[in-house]
Amino acid sequence: MGPRVLPVEGFVAYENPNEQRHEFADQAVKFSSAYLSPETACFRLTFTILGGEHNKIPIYLQIASDNLDSFRYETCRLKDGGSPHLDEVRSRLGRKGGRGDLTHLRFVLRNGVHVQRIVPHNLPDYEALDDPSRHVLDTVASIAASPSFSLYIPANRLSRKLLNVCVEAVQRCSVSTNEEFLSYQRALQLQRLYGGDGGRMLAVHDDDAAVDRDTAVNNHDSSSRQETDSCATLGFDVVPRDQNSPPRYDEGSVDVKKPMAKLADTANVDNSVIDCPPPEYGDIEQARDTPMALKRVRQWVDEDGSPHPSPKRAFSLGSRVAISASASATNVRRLDAKERLELDNADVESYILLHDLSRRIKRLQEKVEQLQQQNTNSEKRQSEVEDICDGLKHQQDLVKDELGNFDVQIDELGGKLGEIEKQMPYDLEELEDLMRHTIRDMLQEDIVRDLIADVVEEQTDDLVSDYVGRDGEVNLPGPVRAYLCKIVADQAATMKAKICQALRE
User: Fold this and answer.
1) Are 153 and 102 in contact (CB under 8 A)?
2) How many domains does the chain have?
3) Which parts form a coiled-coil structure per UniProt (predicted)?
């Protein structure tokens, strides 16, 4: 996929051709690319209707690269200050986008070219719209009719590399291959807009009503056809000449007894019949004006008395035969030249048709190769997808086996737990009660009491032995020893009471 300009929000300042100054459009706009390649580009400005019956309906301004005379960009630094439009843009962009640098995109249209405006099919006429819709349409119409306008966006939204691609595409402004041209047309189809419902293009000078450009073009074609049919004229090569009508063939020649069958027939001289082409119109008119006495043939008599044509008559006959033969040859040459010209024209048409067919065949071959390549890639992807599906299916089978093993283990553990529960005669509460009763019974017996008394005495002896010598002699005076014995006895009694209470509980 090639480079693409994603929608970026900004504001437009356009040139007012009547007042020779720039005005600020208070409507926010989103700048994006409908098509972008190193050879050509087409940009779009999206205005959205805010409020009213047609709320949130977008209106597009489509800017093709062949409509632009120039396209450039520059960075407006925050510290450099600038025009009042920059201050307005910064305030409109807010704290998020207006506190830093701005990118200034300047569009200069060709002379007499307007930006294309695109609206939905179901958008009513200008008179039937409410105020918010009219306001947006008025703003769009003003920008479309402007010879130049500027777009201000935050500087960090578009990279310099992408902007340089846009500038180069506008400068080249050409479509190199048929595939790129088809891709360009497919990207600019109006049926792709408005969620597939399609849009329509407004006329250039239609600022008050939504008139489709196609309707205007169709009306113009129909009116042109009607005018051509009613005002048809002759071509330059069939203009009638200013001359008299040709006479009948039998009026122009007296000696000719049979007409020519073909122009290519050669002249045959006979004693009584001379075949010749029909005379020219001027010669016929001159023959009509000649007196009949001059047309009469004089008979000459030689020495033996046999009549024969006069030398003048014989010369006239020979001249007519020569003229007839030369005229026939000329007609044959003209016919051959005409046939050759027709053949040459046919050859040229055949060559053009053959060239067109070969070009189409080449395009079809390229498309077939592309489709074959796509088919190969699709088969490869299909094979990869099938391998992935097989792997997932295998993993799914393994997971199912693990789940089955878990179910078996859970069943086994459940059986063991049931056996343990069966082996336990009492529950926990009953077991605690049983232990308490057992301890009470043991405390009530004399044996347990004697054991506890013995333990207390041993502890007491250990404590007293620290103050008494090994040989039984007392190292301390009598009162101190008595006091210690009393303390030890109290501690022993306290310990005994705690032990008994703990056992009872």
Assistant:
1) yes
2) 2
3) 354-388
- Is 69 inside any structural domain? yes
Region at 51 (left for phi over 0; alpha for psi -120 to 50; beta for the rest) = left
**248, part of any domain:** no
From residue 272, how far is each of 164, 257, 276 by CA, in Å? 94, 9, 13
DSSP 127-181: GGS-HHHHHHHHHHHHHHH-SEEEEEEETTSS-HHHHHHHHHHHHH----SHHHH
Residue ending a domain, among 197, 220, 243, is 220
Q: Is 124 a member of any domain? A: yes
Among residues 151, 192, 168, which one has the least CA distance to residue 40?
A: 168
Q: Are 320 and 267 in contact (CB under 8 A)?
A: no
Residue 73 makes CB contacts below 8 A (sequence gap 6+) with: 103, 104, 105, 106, 163, 167
3-state DSSP of 410-469: HHHHHHHHHHHHHHCCCCHHHHHHHHHHHHHHHHHCHHHHHHHHHHHHHHHHHHHHCCEC
Provide the residue type at 112 as one letter. G
Cβ pair 23, 11 in contact under 8 A: no
pLDDT of residue 443: 62
- Which residues have CB under 8 Å from 437's CB, separation 6+? none
Assigned domain for 275 exists: no
Instruction: Report the distance separating Cα 438 and Cα 483, nearest Å.
Output: 39
User: Concatenated DSSP letters for 489-505?
Assistant: HHHHHHHHHHHHHHHH-
Handedness of CA 170, 176, 177, 178 (dihedral sign): positive
The torsion of the CA quartet 279, 280, 285, 286, rounded to 10 degrees, works out to -80
Residue whose tokens read 């309906």: 57
Q: Which of 220, 236, 251 is the last residue of a domain?
A: 220
Q: What is the pLDDT of residue 297?
A: 44
Whole-angstrom distance, CA of residue 112 vs CA of residue 43 = 19
The domain of 439 spans: 430-504
**Which SS3 state, helix, strand or coil, does residue 323 take?**
helix
Positions of the chain with pLDDT lower than 70, given as ranges? 1-2, 80-82, 95-98, 175-176, 204-348, 423-429, 431, 440, 442-450, 453, 456-457, 459-482, 484, 502-505
Residue recorded with tokens 């925050």: 78
> Which residue, among 133, 121, 81, 117, has the nearest Cα to 102 in the 3D structure?
81
Q: Kindly report the CA angle at 420 between 419 and 423, in degrees rounded to 5?
A: 90
